[in-house]
């Protein structure tokens, strides 16, 4: 019996330039996997339009996106999938079987609402598979940065990040958000920071054994502004990875997760 093909990587396509940049990145990522790329466009037909014909701009847009994908990854199987419905509903339904969802965004410094709107945050919060929000620039030589805490989603994020970094031969930086303390009020401040670091080292030890060639470094950051702290650790990261629930991701949707998606200068992966 022939082996069933794996589900395709899904890239959302809309009218933004950000989605086209995301398509290019998604094509290159899909080419690394034994699967293809599906370009999903959510289309809403105006009431009273019974022609059943897709608007010309939708056809033109999706064909242009497919051309970008095939140019970025020659030989990659690229499928155009235009469906009626709301983008959130369609993307969440696809996340049940897809290995990865990729969504575009405005460049850092662009309008906050361009990315941090209801679609992005609802998909980030409820998707069943990892979601990468492509923004800024992805340096393939840069390290992978992952934020961890004690949440189950954080453990999945570390798993995803370690495998991603190992497969690409780049360093992994593991950051933990420690509870903010005031040294003058809490005498055990220094001891607690040392304990946080010890637990972090124990957490990554298993992954160091699994990937003996993987360079892993750890950082303990203050959780006062965890998203900004995470972004500031490694400006040249190729990917920032967080769990969907946890101090370093925030309870997406929420202000911390919102800030991370709005201000990161590289792709951000939210793992469930």
Automatic annotation (TrEMBL):
The record's annotation in Pfam families points to: Usp
The alphabetized UniProt keywords are: ATP-binding, Nucleotide-binding
Q: Which domain of life is it from?
A: Bacteria
Would the keyword ATP-binding be found if you checked this record's keyword annotation? yes
Can you give the residue ranges of the UspA domain?
9-135, 143-272
InterPro entries registered for this protein in UniProt: Rossmann-like_a/b/a_fold, Universal_stress_UspA, UspA
**From which residue to which does the signal peptide run?**
none
Which family is it part of? Answer: Belongs to the universal stress protein A family.
Q: Which PANTHER family match?
A: STRESS RESPONSE PROTEIN NHAX, UNIVERSAL STRESS PROTEIN RV2623
- Know the name of this protein? Nucleotide-binding universal stress UspA family protein
């Amino acid at each position: 019996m022939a082996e069933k093909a794996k589900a395709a990587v899904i890239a959302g396509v809309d009218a933004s330039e950000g989605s086209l940049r995301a398509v290019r990145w998604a094509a290159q990522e899909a080419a690394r996997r034994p699967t293809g790329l599906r370009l999903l466009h959510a289309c809403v037909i105006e009431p009273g339009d019974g022609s059943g014909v897709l608007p010309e701009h939708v056809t033109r847009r999706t064909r242009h996106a497919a051309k970008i994908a095939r140019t970025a990854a020659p030989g990659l199987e690229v499928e155009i999938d235009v469906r009626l419905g709301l983008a959130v509903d369609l993307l969440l339904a696809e996340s049940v079987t897809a290995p990865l969802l990729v969504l575009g965004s405005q460049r850092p410094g662009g309008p906050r609402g361009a990315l941090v709107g209801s679609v992005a945050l609802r998909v980030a919060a409820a998707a069943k598979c990892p979601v990468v929000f492509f923004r800024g620039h992805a340096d393939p030589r840069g390290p992978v940065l992952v934020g961890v805490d004690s949440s189950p989603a954080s453990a999945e994020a570390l798993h995803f990040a370690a495998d991603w970094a190992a497969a690409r031969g780049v360093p992994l930086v593991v950051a933990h958000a420690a509870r903010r303390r005031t040294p003058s009020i809490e005498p055990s401040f220094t001891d607690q920071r040392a304990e946080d670091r010890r637990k972090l080292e124990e957490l990554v030890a298993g992954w160091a054994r699994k990937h003996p060639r993987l360079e892993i470094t750890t950082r303990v950051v203050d959780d006062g502004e965890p998203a900004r702290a995470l972004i500031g650790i490694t400006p040249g990261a190729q990917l920032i990875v967080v769990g969907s629930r946890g101090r370093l991701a925030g309870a997406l949707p929420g202000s911390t997760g919102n800030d991370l998606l709005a201000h990161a200068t590289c792709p951000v992966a939210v793992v469930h």
